[in-house]
Amino acid sequence: MAGQIPLSMPDITQAEIDAVVDVLRSGRLSIGPRQARFEELVAHAAGRNHGVAVSSGTAGLHLALLALGVGPGDQVITTPFSFIASANVILYVGATPVFVDIDPVSLNLDPEKLESAINEKTKAIIAVEVFGNPTHMDEIERIAARHEVPLVEDGCEALGGKLGSRCVGSFGRVGVFGFYPNKQITTGEGGMIVTDDDVLAERCRALRNQGRAQNNPAAESITDEGSWLHHEHLGYNYRLSELAAAMGIVQMERLDDILARRREVACMYFDKLMDYPEIILPTIPDEASMSWFVFVVRLSNPFTVKQRERIITGLRRHDVGSSNYFPPIHLQPPYRQRFNFQTGDFLIAESLAQRTLALPFYNKLDATQIELVCLTLRIMLDREKLTMDSVEEN
Q: Whole-model pTM?
């Protein structure tokens, strides 16, 4: 395939298109049987009893904290190295984020640093499986249980992964998945809360549906205006449409094939890049089964953040999608200004964030395109090395 190689691309087949068209023809566009079926499929994949479909992974994390009773005056521990939504939801409920630095290999919360951050104000821990890596989730779960603090597993980047014999989504009190177009499966926009807690699941179902009580058989029926207009709680419109759920069902039915193909693409990158001394490839322990969300490498220490930015610009100029993943959350303006975080507060996250480099990654990426990506990266790296050599000589 010639032309631009984007950073990501959803894997959509005729089956998804047909499923969406069937919903349009049915006339039932919201709160229908496809939502319930999609919930069953995702809950089963996570090894959980309940699935609660919502409009995004962010909405799922927000409702999870609300259902756990987290609010003003409370503290929630999370990582500074993630997409910003995993911290934003803490602010949504009026709580205070407490960041803990990351492990330099897994890029997830460092369990050794986590325990010392827990105090009497800690009301939840949001642990993110960064880039689809579930490493340390079992250790984090044990720490949370020991301190009787609910663990919210942010698996928005990790659907289908495993740690030992346990599925991503099965750790802690509640798990959350996201289905944005760059994720392993997509519903366009969408998310899913998974849990074994009957009460928590019921609260989330009510909160996603404008606070309507779910124990009333008619609560989700648009034919009974008395029930439809009765609201037990302050809720939200976080429902997932039947169109999105129909697409999600087909994607879930293809999940094994989708994940296998993503592993193949990751393996092709490993084969091509393993002899590049300038970059550090992802490290996955034997006990973890990675669910590949993105393919992010790190530049070695001699490279500066300015050089990383030039490499990204050079790749894009040659029609190869690239980006940095992730800028540290605590240094983003809403956090730096409100909580006075400073450069140097979380050294590992900050150091790694300066050298991350995301390469194109999606199911339909072929060997020729990967070869082109790696050759272009090689040129950009060599260009920066020549610049460094020139500076040293002068």
A: 0.94
Query: How far, in Å, are 150, 176, 181, 205 from residue 239 at the CA level?
Result: 24, 15, 18, 9
- The answer to whether 309 touches 327, Cβ cutoff 8 Å, is no
HSE toward the beta carbon, residue 99, CA cutoff 13 A: 28
Residue 95, helix vs strand vs coil = coil
Widest distance between CA atoms in the chain: 80
Q: Determine the CATH number of domain 259-393.
A: 3.90.1150.10
- Pairing between β-strand 75-78 and β-strand 96-99 as defined by DSSP bridges: parallel
Residue 18 buriedness (CB in 10 A; 0-12 / 13-18 / 19+): exposed
Arithmetic mean of pLDDT, 127-153: 98
Give every CB contact of residue 225 below 8 A, 6+ residues apart in sequence.
Answer: none
Do β-strands 191-195 and 174-178 pair in parallel, antiparallel, or remain unpaired?
antiparallel
Domain borders along the chain are: 14-253, 259-393
Condensed to tens digits (0 to 9), the pLDDT of residues 152-169 reads 999 999 999 999 999 999
Written as six digits, the tokens of 225 are: 């205006």
Per-residue DSSP letter, 212: -
Q: Is residue 89 within 8 Å of 58, Cβ to Cβ? A: yes
pLDDT digits (tens, 9 = 90+) for 330-375: 999 999 999 999 999 999 999 999 999 999 999 999 999 999 999 9
Question: So what CATH class is 14-253?
Answer: alpha beta
Output b/e per residue, 53-64; b: 16+ Cβ within 10 A.
bbbbbbbbbbbb
Among 135-139, 280-284, 390-394, which is the least confidently predicted range? 390-394
- Backbone φ and ψ for 343, nearest 5 degrees, come out as -60, 130
8 A C-beta contact, residue 292 and residue 132: yes
- Sheet holding 162-163: strands in order across? 166-167, 162-163, 288-289
Query: Is residue 248 a contact partner of residue 43, using CB atoms and an 8 Å limit?
Result: no
Query: Structure tokens of 111?
Result: 């369990």
Instruction: Collect all residues with Cβ–Cβ distance below 8 Å to 320 and sequence separation of at least 6.
Output: 4, 5, 359, 360, 372, 373, 376, 377
**Size of the chain, expressed as the number of residues it contains:** 394
State yes or no: pLDDT of 216 exceeds 50. Answer: no
